[in-house]
Automatic annotation (TrEMBL):
Highest taxon in the source lineage: Bacteria
PANTHER family xref list: 3-OXOACYL-(ACYL-CARRIER-PROTEIN) REDUCTASE, 3-OXOACYL-[ACYL-CARRIER-PROTEIN] REDUCTASE FABG
Alphabetized SUPFAM superfamilies for the sequence: NAD(P)-binding Rossmann-fold domains
Protein name per UniProt: 3-oxoacyl-[acyl-carrier protein] reductase
Transmembrane segments: none
Family: Belongs to the short-chain dehydrogenases/reductases (SDR) family.
UniProt cross-references to Pfam families, sorted A to Z: adh_short_C2
Length: 241
């Protein structure tokens, strides 16, 4: 039985990934930071639908590296590691504190990298281990008012470029799925007018549904996807890349 750990399963994109992987027979560790209810509901639902698979809820504030070792004790077998956690802030770089930068770096780069280092031996066991980050098109093209966010998303892509070269022979692939604008909690701060203006700039004419991002994550988890590694795959409706 294959096991995936989904960081940020309580978020909208993570939730969609969980639904699609559960339907494909995966057992899942479903991570949350604050929204325990979202994950508890998933565990309940999946346990009923897929009684022969395992579903566990796990929590961890990824801004706190000191809790990583304890968190890792709850992870046994793992074949796929999916980083779907993450937040952004909207302000000018000159108004961004060192502490804010540090928190974003910890949650989206430093702690994930530490986690990967610890879990690499487990991921190597099946000879088809998978590591997938949900990055962002802003990691390639950048966004004003989100310089810190764009920087860490670019760092995720740089990390997969390099790390893929170290682990290719272990059968582990490492990639980024980089969305454009997706209809999730993260974008609820936009007014209807702002939302429409952004949608009008996107060739497909709308924000992505979380399922349309999850779809590509699931493709990468497939055993036949073993030759795709070190890549950032842009899923942005033709918007910016
Ligand atoms: N939505 C978009 O347009 C878009 C575009 C490009 C890329 N992305 C990326 O997609 C990923 C998922 O975002 P989403 O749109 O699904 O947003 P979302 O629904 O707001 O989900 C955010 C997730 O991040 C988790 N999280 C927040 N703070 C955390 C912390 N300190 N430690 C650990 N986890 C934490 C949340 O956990 P709790 O809720 O349990 O606290 C939640 O699971 C992010 O990396 C984001 O950058 C999103």
């Amino acid at each position: 039985m294959k096991h995936a750990l989904i960081l940020g399963a309580s978020g909208d994109i993570g939730n969609s990934i969980a639904k699609q992987l559960a339907a494909q027979g995966w057992s899942l560790y479903l991570h949350y930071n604050q929204n325990e209810l979202a994950v508890t509901q998933l565990v309940k639902k999946f346990t009923k639908l897929y009684p022969h698979q395992e579903f566990l809820s796990v929590s961890f504030d990824m801004q706190k590296r000191e809790n990583l070792a304890t968190f890792l004790q709850s992870i046994f077998a793992v074949d796929a590691l999916i980083f779907a956690q993450g937040t952004t802030d909207y302000h000018l770089l000159t108004e961004t504190s060192f502490d804010e930068l540090q928190k974003m770096w910890m949650m989206q780069v430093a702690v994930p990298v530490e986690m990967i280092k610890a879990l690499q031996p487990k991921l190597a066991r099946s000879k088809a281990g998978r590591i997938i980050f949900i990055g962002s098109v802003y990691g390639a093209v950048g966004s004003a008012m989100e310089v810190d966010y764009s920087t860490i998303k670019g760092a995720q892509s740089a990390f997969v470029n390099a790390y893929a070269k170290e682990i290719g022979t272990l059968g582990i692939t490492v990639n980024v799925i980089a969305p454009g604008a997706v209809n999730t909690q993260m974008n609820r701060i936009f007014s209807t007018d702002e939302h429409q203006k952004i949608a009008a700039d996107i060739p497909v004419g709308r924000f992505a549904k979380p399922d349309e991002i999850a779809y590509w994550v699931v493709q990468l988890t497939n055993e036949q996807a073993g030759y795709m590694t070190g890549q950032t795959i842009y899923v942005d409706g033709g918007w910016l890349k």
